Automatic annotation (TrEMBL):
InterPro entries: TraB/PrgY/GumN_fam, YbaP-like. This is GumN family protein. Residues 40-49 have a biased composition (Low complexity). Residues 30-49 are annotated as: Disordered. Pfam families: TraB_PrgY_gumN.
Length: 315
């Protein structure tokens, strides 16, 4: 059994990235159409009519808002020229969290602390017999006995399934838009800022009710077989600037859980505004990189900025 705990611990940093960067991008609705095959990598990216990039100007500066896909394939690069131009124009970058801390030992310890049950209840105790049996069968199929998760909370089991599946499909947080620009900014000596702390995001996930966590397990298991197609469809929508399709893929699964949707997106967006809006009074130009789900739907960052009287230009 120790070797299976080792597999889990080995993937803690990757699981942390998935937890911290996105809840729904890995588990949306089932795909509605076949996804196109990835295009061969070339030296120049095809230029879409529009991207998931917006520009807000003030008398003092320019702020760019880029909706990110947090896990991509190497073949998804290079990015569109508009996006790279925005990076070059910005003196500073803003991410959801401190990207430099994502794979630190401190963060890994925090993952295990938040994911480990402190009340003595096992995973089996927290799930209905039907869901537990489903989880047991699925864990066995990926080569991990369910007993390896006995001391963990349901949300951690779900994220482990997603992480291992995405790794096998070659979707990697190392190729995510956030990581790409964080590494580039670090190399270029550009300052980076964060909208919230790493612990804020863990507390959000850990606050989900037992019922929500069980529902998430069932949804995750139900959609594992179609994960590659649905995820690639989302990436294709992002590349082409198809915000309606991306909105449907990201948010439709929350139609029966409006409070959960607000908890993950709306509430955080409203909190972020206390940091984002003052940036328009600074002298430096900024590139803000957040999950694409934060730029679509009710109380999106874009909607909140417009409500404050700011004019947005899509690039």
């Amino acid at each position: 059994m120790h070797k299976f705990h080792g597999v889990i611990r080995k993937n803690v940093s990757r699981i942390a990235v998935v937890i911290l960067l996105t809840l729904v991008s890995a588990c949306g609705d089932k795909p509605t159409r076949p996804s196109p095959a990835p295009s061969p990598q070339s030296s120049q990216a095809p230029q879409p009519q529009q991207t998931f990039l917006w520009q807000v100007k003030s008398p003092q500066n320019t702020v760019y808002l880029l909706g990110s896909i947090h896990l991509l394939k190497k073949s998804d690069y290079p990015l569109a020229k508009q996006i790279n131009d925005a990076y070059e124009d910005a003196e500073k970058l803003v991410f959801e969290v401190d990207m430099g801390e994502l794979e630190s030992s401190k963060t890994q310890s925090l993952v295990l602390e938040k994911a480990t049950a402190q009340d003595g209840k096992t995973l089996k105790d927290r799930l209905t017999p039907e869901t537990y049996q489903l989880a047991k069968t699925t864990a066995s199929e990926i080569g991990l006995p369910i007993e390896a998760f006995s001391g963990f909370k349901p949300w951690f089991f779900s994220l482990t399934l997603i992480t291992l599946k995405l790794q096998r499909l070659e979707f990697n947080p190392e190729h995510g838009v956030d990581q790409y620009f964080f590494k580039k900014a670090t190399k270029d000596g550009k300052e980076t800022l964060a909208l919230e702390t790493i612990e804020d995001q863990f507390n959000l996930f850990d606050s989900f009710s037992q019922g929500d966590q069980e529902q998430y397990i069932r949804q995750t298991i139900d959609e594992l077989d179609t994960l590659e197609t649905s995820f690639q469809e989302m990436v294709s929508a992002w590349k082409s600037g198809d915000d309606q399709t991306l909105k449907n893929l990201l948010l439709k699964s929350f139609k029966d859980y409006p409070e959960l949707e607000d908890q993950i997106f709306g509430a955080r967006n409203r909190k972020w505004m206390t940091t984002i809006e003052p940036l328009l009074q600074k002298e430096d130009d900024y590139l803000i990189v957040v999950g694409a789900g934060h730029l679509v739907g009710k109380d999106s960052v874009l909607e909140l900025l417009q409500a404050k009287g700011h004019t947005l230009k899509r690039l």
